[in-house]
Every structure is written in structure tokens, then in C-alpha cells.
Amino acid sequence: MRNPTLSDVAKAAGVSYATADRVVNSRGNVADKSIRKVQAAMEALGYVRDIAAANLSRGRVYRLAFLLPSGPNAFFAKMRAALSNLAAHLSAERVDIQIVDIAAFSHQGLRAALADIEVPGLDGIAIVGLSGASLQQPLADLRDKGVSVVSLVSDLRADERDAYVGINNLAAGRTAARLLGMAHSGRAGAVLTLAGSLDAEDHIQRLNGFRDVIKADFPHLTILDPILAKDDEAAVFDGMVERFKANDQITAVYNVGAGNQGLVRALEAIAPDPAPLCVVHELVAHSRAALESGLIHFIIDQRPDIEAARAVTILRALIDGRSKPPMPELVPMIYVPDNLPAHTDPAHTDIHTGKAPLHD
Amino acid sequence: MRNPTLSDVAKAAGVSYATADRVVNSRGNVADKSIRKVQAAMEALGYVRDIAAANLSRGRVYRLAFLLPSGPNAFFAKMRAALSNLAAHLSAERVDIQIVDIAAFSHQGLRAALADIEVPGLDGIAIVGLSGASLQQPLADLRDKGVSVVSLVSDLRADERDAYVGINNLAAGRTAARLLGMAHSGRAGAVLTLAGSLDAEDHIQRLNGFRDVIKADFPHLTILDPILAKDDEAAVFDGMVERFKANDQITAVYNVGAGNQGLVRALEAIAPDPAPLCVVHELVAHSRAALESGLIHFIIDQRPDIEAARAVTILRALIDGRSKPPMPELVPMIYVPDNLPAHTDPAHTDIHTGKAPLHD
DNA sequence: TCATTTTTGATTGACGTCTATCATTTTCAC
DNA sequence: GTGAAAATGATAGACGTCAATCAAAAATGA
User: Using the beta-carbon criterion (under 8 Å), do A49 and B92 form an inter-chain contact?
Assistant: First the structure.
């Protein structure tokens, strides 16, 4: 009935508790024969170490750091909110979450922050990956010191991190293409695309996926060269106005990056007729309002709240050296005006009283 | 630095540990004055009881029962798989999950199962709601005995359960309408609808939501009366064939219920030209195959794996009397061929070795 | 075979909470 | 002021694990 304890294992293996403990915690100085006996007994009894008891005994606190880009980015603002919400609830489970501000898209800032982190006590970090080799050494140093690393939203090289939490951006771009393609239902058209920069791996992948599907399945649609607006809304606005002035055949817009407030303002200013179909990324206050008002038609979202929670869960598992708990794949979420969650702001749950209704 | 313990609280309140304990565990026989002192101290120190330690001490095991419809339903098969996967991983956290088979859609079976549950030791149950009053008494009895109840997938009356885990089915129906409407892009058309039964609350809500959006935003589309096929694939097949024979103006199909294998077989058999746009519910092996082959175009899914995990989490919180951890709202997920998760089967993670790659 | 090293056993005190017991003090009614 | 009831204090063992110590036994090498 009750789960077996390490004492049970020791007894079954015919060794003392001390020896069994030496095996499970690999403290060394154990004969191979004993190791095998203990492992066999664990197998036979189905022993699983009681993590709660272990943590209690250790006085273990999971110290996690999230390095997030600072600035006006609404997506990361949502993720911050989700994290502080999580932090409040997880303090009861010995999880300490610290958010470190990083200059956005800055290799230098990230490198400095990684070096600065006071390692004693830190168990794991989550960082938003940047392509390029400059992070390799600091990350390796950190991991040598036993810190687990997950990449968040944008991946690192597979050998630089222990896990990736984020969506498949190629799939996201393909999805956008599918939606726009189907909504043209056979008509010809031209799609204006926008991106932050072609240095950002996620943006490139989205554009590639988009192109693949359009070419293969919707050849009657042409793709215009992307406006590169550095995720800056003013630049997005200017680019949109310019392109729409130069081309009155645009039937759709796909922005793989941020700066959607500029996009919305431009659509309102230009008021092209007929209105183009619009797909953008990330459900935040402004994009949500535009979706509800009908200015844009689809939002592809990666649910920062879920990603934050998952990053914490995976870091805990990594730190414990456990196997990963079952984690359904993160999938690019499609929003239309009808399947929007009730609240965009994940922090609407009252952290302090916890008085939020239990049914969501 | 360290979180305060109950001893710290007692000290700060100027009472003994025993008295502080009497307060936090409401054992009675405490003067109001002392209660206030202890509560003030808890507030001041920010005391949060260490649940792990408490559970360890109590020898607490969370005993949960999931009452799921038996039968060939692929959606619930996925949920079962997710649950056993969860169970394997959560045994380390003192969670014991038991799956109880229920005859599908049977008030009687559900009532009998509720009465039969051996209450001693049971802490919480999850059941798939059925409309009608016959469950009221057994549920009330169960909850009187301290068992927490969550409704899963299909809701109960709000006063019959502690929480609901599932999607908003009205929103799901509206979403289907939006997708089909946009994919017609102005053309007229007729939508064939299918449902299991008009006794199932979720099916009704989906149809209602669908109708609302079509009427409001896509008035050039007409909705045909639903085929009621009891989620039986043979009945779905027959109904489809009959309707398509009678009406060659059908441009789209929306099935709010199960039995999609019959739908796919019918489409292959009839091969209407042009092929109708198809929206169905729940991503399972067959619907996935049909989506990938282009026979159907959208799947609206409620991610049984996530729902299972969430039901467990919420039950644990309810049982602990904790506040609900932050839970992003469950949203009807839209799948196109391009944003499908890598594996439909959540059990592909090897439970025993845990050797699944950590990046999903 | 003896000295040395390696391996094992036995035990102990945390960690923070729960539950229980028993003795003591305070409060209250009369 | 007395007696009963209510409230409080003090303490101890348990939960399963970790981390450490010390003594005893077994294996190893010369």
C-alpha cells in the first residue's frame, strides 16, 4: 500500500540503510556488488525517493533566475507578470524566482549578466537565446558549476542548454500561411510581411515557414519583401504607410515580430479598402483590442504564462535530476475573436488573497 | 532569508508552539485573544505552512478518482493515457490516481459509481458532467464527507462542484463558425452540422455559439439541421451520405461531437466536388490523419493531457485548502496541418526510463 | 600474516509539521 | 473564594531523507 522507503530497500537488499544511502546519493566507497544489490532491490520494490522529504531534509531551496529583456515589450511584460504570480505561489514549495533585467537583443548585456550572477546557491537559469557564439563560454562555465540552463522563447544551440521551452517557430510561420491562404479561398493576392530583424532566429524561421506553405499550397499569393522594423512601432507605422502607398494590391499582412501598435495605427490611418487580412504574433493588450475590433484577424500566440510555468517545472526536474514530467508539446496557439481567454492579464488573479474563483 | 516556521510565529506571537499549532490547525480551545495574536504574527512574518513537511508528517496521500466514460472514444482514451502517465510521475509526490470506468453518457452508471466509491481515504474526484438533477444528491453526500469535486470537460451546476476544468464550449462553437466563415471569404454556402445528442450540454453550446457567429457575421451562410448521430461513427457515416445525396450545395461540415472516423469515411466515399470545408473537434489519431491528408481543414481541440494535469493540480490545491495556483484559462485550441504537435500520443514519453528528450 | 585500505553497519540530529499527552495556569460562574 | 471549565505550555515521537560520525568488518597488498 504505502510506497517503499529507503529503509525497505536496504532491508530487501540485505544491506544497511547507510549503504543504501551511499548508493542512491552516490557518495562513493561502495562495492560494485552492493550497488547491484541495492539497485535490484529498488527495481523490485519500485522505490521512488520522496522528493518532499529529501528537500525538507536538505533545506533545499530552488533558486532560479530568469534573464528577461527589459523595455516596453508587452510579451515579456506578460511573462514577467506570470513569473511573479508563480513566484508568489511557489514560495510555499521552496522555489525562489529572481528576474534579472537584460538589455533587449544585446549579446553584451546577456554575457555580462551571466558572468555577474552570483553562483553560490543558484540552481538554474532561464534565458532568451540569442544566436551567435559569444554566449558559449559563460554558459559552459555556469553549467560546470552545476547550474541548469533552459532556453526560453528563442533557442540556443542544443549543446549549450539542458532544455528548450518555446514553440516551433517554423510551424508558427507555416500556420500563419495556412490561415491567410485559406482565407483567400482561391483568390489571388499579395502579402506584406514585417519582421524585427533577420538576425533573430525566431523571426527568420517564421518567415521561412510562411514562405514554404505559401509557395507549396497557395501559389496564387505573392509575398512582398519584409519590412524590417526592429520591433519598433514607429518604424512599423512608417513602413506600412509607405508600402501601402506604393502598392494597392496588398490583400494581407503578416508581422512575425513585435510593434503591432504601429501596425494597427497604420491600418487605421490608411484604411485600405478592402481591408487586408492580418495575422500577427503574441496576444497582448493592443493586439487583442485590434482582433476584437476586426482590424486584425488572427493572432498566433505562444502563451508566456504557460511557458513560464513550464520553465520552472523543467528547471525543478533538472535540478532534482529527475526525469521530465509529462509535458505536452508547446504549440503555436491560434486566436480568433471568439476563443480569446477572459483576461489577457495573467496577474488578474489576486496573488495575496488568492481569492480568484477556482473555476476559470 | 529562510522562510519563517511555525515556531518563529509562536515566538513572535508570544505564545507556545502548541497554541500556534492549535490556531493554524483550528483544533479549538483557544482564546480569541491568542488567535488574533497568532494571526497577526503570521501576517507580519509572512508565514506559509510548508506543505511538503505537513504532508510528510501526516503521511498524507492524495487519493484521487477520475470517473471516465469507457468505450471506444478516442478523446477519453487520450485522457486516460495522459492520466496514467501523470500517475506514474506523481507517485513520487504522494498522489494516487485511480481511473474508474463509467458507461458513457449514463446518468445511472455515474450515480451508481458515485455511490459505490469507497469514501474512506478518498480525497477528490473528477467527473465528466451530465446535465440533469439526478447527480445532485450523491455529489452532495460525497462533498459532505470532505471529498473535493471537479467537473471535467463538461460542467456540472456551479453549486454541485468545486471547480470546472474544461473549455468554454460556446467559444468553441463560435470559433468554428469564425474559421468556416472566413474561409468562405464572402461566398455563399451551406453548412452541414453534426452532433452526438441534444442532451449533452457541451454539444448544445457548441451549436449555439456556431449559430450566433454565422448569423451575425456570415449571413450568406446557411446552417442545415444537425445530424444527431450519438457519437457513433456508423451513424455519422450514414447521415453524411444521406445528406450529401439530398443536397449538393453543401460547402462546409461542422461536427461538434465524436465519430469522426465515420465522417472521414463518408467524405472519401462521396468525394464531393468541390470538397467541403471541414471543422471537427478533438485531435486524435483519425482526425489528425484526415487533417494532414487535407480531408478536414481545422480541428478544435481541448488538449486532454493538459486538462488531466490541471484537474490533478486543482484537486490538490482544493484538498490542501490552498488558493488556486495561477492557471491560465483553458482555450479551445485550433489546429491546422502546420501547428500539430509532434506526437498525438501523450504516452510516447517513456514512463519507466524517463528517457524522453527534455526539449519537446 | 600483518598492516593498510576499502567497505559496511549502526546511529544520530537535523528539516518543519502533525498529533497526542500531561501538567499547569487562567478564567469564569456561583 | 472555591470548584469546574477553559486555555496554555512543554514535550515527545513520527514522517522519509540527508549528512555526518565512529566503530567494526572485509578485502587487499607486500
Answer: yes
Domain range enclosing A28: 6-49
The share of chain A scoring above pLDDT 90, in percent, equals: 49
Q: Which residues of B touch A336 (CB under 8 A)?
A: 175, 178-179, 182, 334
pLDDT at A94: 79
Say whether both B187 and B283 belong to one domain: yes
Alpha carbons A7 and A30: distance in angstroms, whole number = 17
Is the Cβ pair A339, B182 closer than 8 Å?
Answer: no
Task: Indicate whether A16 belongs to any domain.
Answer: yes
Total beta-carbon pairs less than 8 A apart between chain A and chain B: 189
Note whether B152 and B262 are same-domain residues: no
* Average pLDDT for chain A: 86
Residues A178 and A257 both lie in one domain: yes
In this structure, are B156 and B203 located in the same domain? no
Closest alpha carbon within chain A to B311: A359
Mean pLDDT over residues A278-297, rounded?
Answer: 95
Of B174, B274, B254, nearest to B218 (Cα)?
B174
What is the model's pLDDT at position B74? 85
Q: Which residues contact B332 (CB under 8 A, 6 or more apart)?
A: A339, B167, B168, B171, B172, B175, B300, B301, B302
Grouped pLDDT means (10 residues each) for chain B, 360 residues: 85 92 88 90 89 85 89 87 85 83 79 76 86 78 87 87 91 97 92 89 92 96 94 93 94 94 95 93 94 96 90 88 70 95 51 29
CATH no. for residue A213? 3.40.50.2300
Contact criterion met (CB < 8 Å) for A209 and B338 = yes
The nucleotides of chain D lying under 7 Å from a protein CB are 6-21
Which among A163, A355, A360 has CB closest to B330?
A360
* Closest in B85, B162, B183 to A358, CB measured: B162
Residue B359 lies in a domain: no
Which is more confidently placed, A200 or B178?
Answer: B178
| Distance of B353 CA from C13 C1′ (whole Å) | 35
Strand A148-152: give its sheet, edge to edge: A95-102, A62-69, A124-127, A148-152, A163-165
The number of domains in chain B is 3
Are A84 and A231 part of one and the same domain?
no
